[in-house]
Description:
The protein is mainly alpha-helical. The chain is 74% helix and 0% strand. The protein folds into 2 domains: 3-54, no CATH class; 88-330, MetI-like (MetI-like fold). It has 14 helices and no strands. Helix 1 (3-32) crosses helix 2 and helix 3 (88-95) packs across helix 14.
Amino acid sequence: MDQISQAVLAILLGVGGMGFYFFASNFLLDRVYAAETQAADRAKKRIRPWLFVAPALLSLTFYLVYPAVDTFRRSLFNARTEEFVGINNYVWAFTNETLREAFRNNILWLLIVPLFSVVFGLAVAVLADKVRYESLAKAFIFMPMAISFVGASVVWRFVYAFVPPGRPQIGILNAIVTSLGGAPKGWFIDVPRPWNSLFLMVVLIWIQAGFAMVLLSAALKAVPEETVEAAKIDGANDVQLFFRIVLPQIRSTVFVVYTTIVIIVLKVFDIVFVMTSGQFGTEVLANRMFREMFRFVNFGRGSTIAVILMVAVVPIMYINIRRFREEELVR
């Protein structure tokens, strides 16, 4: 059976199976509580919503909850999950020099990438509104979002490519340097650690600036024109208008964009793996997790790093969810 037939069959079985489940479960519910009484009606109202969310809850449990629990369990065992070692893997994670370097790099990514992505995205969103070809300008900035992280990394490898002196430079950056009379550089080798990681961060900023621009542009267009006009009448200049009138009104969107990019940064893997594979002092936690798990076949240490990443992401997700709920209450 070819792939197209398999895909069609999977869709039919999936949709048909869910349709049969909903029909059968509601039919059984109506048969069980067939009596025309208030108690039966209340019971059906309580149970029916759970029948609809049950498949989603089971899927979440199977694909999210169980793997998270099992990953934590494996983090307490040795490389082959044969011997219980307690917190030894966590002690290793916080004392190993390579892991400490990865923690330091992740913190550097967290400090730089979300900030510059939001700043660039906001700047483009504001300035693009003032040009004639707004849609075209935004399309060019958003275009990197259509590229996978791996694809973007390949593109930027050509930008940073190094060829020894005396030969034609295929890397754009080194071609510019040599055309100005300089010597070509290995941007990940010659630049001191940890600042060589900045050349990797540029790739993610290049991608995420478009994402920030789209959401912030929508937020800017939702700012009531009356507040802007009132500020202009009161004599506010463009800088005061932006920082005192516009920015406070889109603050919640800025926060959501920022925290979303923070989560992406915490999980960054593709860019580092493709461009340096964590060499030259560019290691990050997700790449180290991959190396421990699949290259060194140490499931205990790989699971430990996965748990650390999960613990780092959960509070940010909680803050985002709580903020959404607060905004819903205000509305």
